Amino acid sequence: MYFTAETLATNSRLRAHWDSLWGQRNIWDRSHQMMVNNYRSAMDQETLVANALAGDGLGREFWAEIDRQIIQMRDQEVGIEIINDLMSVQTILPIGKTAKLYNIVGDIADDVSISLDGQAPYSFDHTDYDSDGDPIPVFTAGYGVNWRLAAGLNTVGMDLVLDSQASKMRKFHKKRVNYYLNGDSSIQVQNYPAQGIKNHRNTIKINLGTGAGGVNTDLPSASQEALSTFFTTGAFGQAARDNFVVAYDILWVSPQIMANLNKQATVTINGATILIGGSVMSVIRQFIPAKDIRETFALKDNEFMAYQRRQDVISPLVGMAVGVVPLPRPMPQNNFNFQIMSAEGLNIKRDDEGLSGVLYGANLN
């Protein structure tokens, strides 16, 4: 989802996105020079200074600073760690894709014959298909610098651009995180709704509340024994077994749940509760079907999520990595405006037996 030396070296489709991004930046350079040359004789000295750019345009050093800041800020938004963790299983797609569709293989006759001559009757039917899919919406945001303050985007102007970008990038990432977690009810492509990890139709859900279907479990306050039961023979462990998951790659928990897991472990001897070395986590960790347990402030109170980090289970859909392009300046008095843009969605699958490797638990009443 980001242009880095590593991702560009390993993904040809992402390199095509990078070439397209630079194509737009080069178009701006040429159009800006044409505008300045067309109106040079009519501009006063102050306007000329405000529109003067070194070389033929904004230049590689300018964009290196812009792109460097994008990478630096990718870890600074609450919840972005979840998206970053899924980057290893992302699916890069052409920008023209507005949804990623896939087939679900249906059932077929189960008549397998056992005989000596191999001539016993059996059918020659074929499987049926169903389909599913997820939208790939475009995320956009803008920021600008006043043409007089920019002074040709010199050192002061560059600082103003970077400070403005940093402020807007935080809001941009906040919107992205919310989409990956909760989707967007206003987005739908070919009857496929835009859903996030928490509410995706293919996410297995555990109602931790007390209402209908709830398991009545408050993980931030549960006892050591209750926690052990929940993650093994209880709802969490049962969901893993029901979906043939030996172990989830990551279990994300709220700070409140993590605080309870980090409490000092105890043991009861002759009716007396005695503190022992280590945390509750260290005592029950080996029994939880999850390879890694991490805390995230994107979840609150009685809330957790887990997934198998596999492309056939969950995958960010990237039609355009996060990038910045300048917008045209038809007149010398137009501000220097920039657009942040990405095209991305989230794909969560169930297999033909309805099994899923993504799990979400919360008070769902």
From TrEMBL:
Source organism superkingdom: Bacteria
InterPro entries per record: DUF6260
UniProt-recorded name of the protein: DUF2184 domain-containing protein
Taxonomic source organism: Limnobaculum xujianqingii
Organism phylogeny: Bacteria, Pseudomonadati, Pseudomonadota, Gammaproteobacteria, Enterobacterales
